[in-house]
Specification:
It is a single chain. The protein has 5 helices and 8 strands, in the order E-H-E-H-E-E-H-E-E-H-H-E-E. The C terminus is likely disordered. About 35% of the residues are buried. It has about 190 residues and is of the alpha+beta class.
């Protein structure tokens, strides 16, 4: 699988990385920090390697860092159980996601439907059961008393190729466009 993701600002990158490390040490599980932290924007079986970087460079040049507001601890249930920090869908974030998705969808083979704008659930992952291979409930209990009401920014676009659980980041593009995540120019 291949993905287009956005990274949080350095302070929150460190904060989330430390939390994932703490979970790993407290519950004696292996955590793969190269997977974290991130906001996933689009996932596909494959993107056109020759066209993805220019398409994302246009988006990055047209958008400033996007402010995120988080709203608590969330949990995915069902086949792929996981814990995450929930992100509020603001108009600016929705517009940014739509711009990224529209730019990469024509370049994709087998896009994952969960990242389509109509159904996308923005979140910052903390731990997945497929990594943990155990009961995730004790971790949820451990984190449940913490406050997850944050303001942070996503500051770049990253294109990664997932090779099992450790993605290889092919390139990272800083968001350098308009102010407060707004669109500037014809890129989106």
């Amino acid at each position: 699988m291949q993905a287009v993701i956005a990274s949080p600002d350095p302070d929150h990158f460190e904060r989330l990385s430390a939390m994932v490390n703490e979970i790993g040490q407290t519950f004696t599980i292996r955590v793969d920090l190269d997977v974290y932290p991130r906001l996933t924007l689009a996932v596909a079986e494959r993107f056109d390697q020759s066209r993805i970087e220019p398409a994302l460079a246009k988006i990055a040049a047209a958008h400033a860092p996007v402010t995120l507001t988080t709203s608590g601890l969330g949990m995915f249930t069902g086949a792929e159980v996981g814990l995450y920090v929930a992100v509020v869908k603001t108009p600016v974030l929705v517009a940014f996601h739509r711009a990224v998705y529209a730019a990469v969808e024509p370049l994709a083979t087998a896009m994952e439907a969960a990242y389509a704008p109509a159904v996308w659930l923005p979140h910052l992952p903390l731990v997945r059961e497929d990594v943990f291979k155990g009961d995730i409930a004790p971790i949820a209990g451990y984190l449940s008393r913490r406050k997850f009401s944050w303001q942070l920014a996503i500051v770049d676009l990253v294109y990664s190729v997932d090779t099992t659980l450790t993605p290889r980041r092919l390139f990272k593009l800083p968001l350098t466009g308009g102010s407060d995540g707004t669109h500037r120019g014809p890129a989106g």
